[in-house]
Amino acid sequence: MPIHPSRPSQRGQVLVIVAVGMFVIIGLVGLVIDGGNAWGQQRQTQNGADAMAEAGATVLAHWLKGAPMTDGDVGCAVEAAADANGLADPSAVYTDVAGDFLTPTVEVGACNPGGGAPIPPGAQGVKASGNRDFDTFLARAIGFQQFTTSASATAVAGLITEICPANAGCPVLPVTFPLTAVTCDGTNRQLQIPGTDWPLTQLVDPMADDYADTDTMSIVPLCSIGPGSVGWLDFGPPCPNNLADVITNPCNVSIPIPTWIQTSTGNPNNLEEKINALTGPQIGVADDSVVLIPINDNTCSTKPPDSQFNCPGGNGSGNGSNLYYHIPKFTRFMIDQAYIQGGNSGDCNSPPGKPLVQGNGGTGCFKGWFLNYVETGPVGPGATGPLDPGQIGIQLIR
Asked: What is the value of pTM for the model shown?
């Protein structure tokens, strides 16, 4: 009987190939599913790091404006943002306005409301880091039970260097207040923004009853004689020449800081109703809209370069439609009531608000609050403290 050599089992080979193939398929599917999940987790981790940095920079913004903040307050803000975004092992380091570490490097301390070390000099930013652990799905079949994502971000605080367009949420009222105004009573008493008469009010919670009150309300005079106190502005194209239309539908484009802006030839006497449409239902109650107001510190009959403070024709020159205002700062103002048409000496010379206008020239005024307000936008070095009316902001840079 002939003897035939034995052959290996084809069934066994097929089982090995199928097993290996299934392992590869599961790995590839796991790569797609868990890889996509990892990408989403990384995005959430980055968002959390952004929130941590911005929270720390917001505390620095208030500190730059003179609020009594400490390193412990920065730590609380960073930790609270980390908890809210599900990040573990949060850490943060102070930076300068460019996002570079201070020399020597200073880490943000632990949460200690109102306590801890002082905020280090030169601190204008926070670089924050954190991580997130998350379970896998199919990848655990090949031994990966959990992945970790990490992220860091840097946010800085300082004076806003550019006002964004109105359609991006930065409506600017076409009226400018002087950095230093003169009363209408003939004494030439000067009023400073901010100052004892016109304080900056902290805007904490718009829903709270006591976040702005009549004790901090300001009365800004529209003197009918003398140098006056306000000017009406022409933002130029694409804004219409009609002041009422600009107030009803804010259209300011991006505005650099500092800048020169020309006066408007429109008639302000019919603007009272338009501006008071921005106010709330109750006089003397902080239930009103918040707008940006340009602050001026010089005038000129011709338009110098934006970066130039001095006027070639002599500082303070110019009048009427030939007048340009130098705008080095913008401030947030909540208008409680506007008296523009004249004949309102009684309203402007009585509470609420201060100082009372007084004098025969005080026929109109704005009543409202100058706000210590933090917003998002491009920023530059520092703020000079509580006596600087310039708009403070935070910027996420990395």
From this structure: 0.73
